[in-house]
Design goal:
Blueprint lengths: L15 E12 L11 E3 L16 H25 L7 E7 L2 E6 L8 E7 L7 E14 L2 E9 L3 H26 L2
Length: about 180
Amino acid sequence: MPGEKKADPQRREFSRVKVQLPVDIRLVPPEEQSNIRAHVSGRYMVKESACLPDVQDKLLAEWLKLLNSKLDTIIRMLTLQEEGLGSLPFNSENISGGGLSFTSPHLFSPGDILEIKTILSAMQPVMFCLYGEVVKIEKRGQDYLTSVKFIAIDEPLRDEIVRFVFEMERESLRKQKGELFP
């Protein structure tokens, strides 16, 4: 149709950001592939009745909130450590709501399904267990640049990744602004 814009095949659906992340990647064997589902670990639910009661003393209430926050962080960290994420190596990654690219000494094949465990925020340390299908591989020296498209992921989890990307972009802009205007 005249005047109609065509979609650019090179245009990405999601913003990307390059970050250093703790990551564990494994090839998912074919017998496990039918049962995969992206999820978050290290986050636990607290019943409303388990919440702290209102305290009239404002100073005491602030101390209790601080103590509660610290206990939550300790519990999250212990959960992550129990799941083996306390000692993950940091890798340079390129992440978006649609997928991830990373450098690996392992050669994967297009169509391979990978399990990707990572922590996206140190402030609220929760482990993301993501799954991706290998869509592209490039030889880079001794390693391989591997690109995956997220699969078996629900929208709320994808939204958390998108939120993380925007948070990292905002931080990068703040640093640039600080360098330009000291």
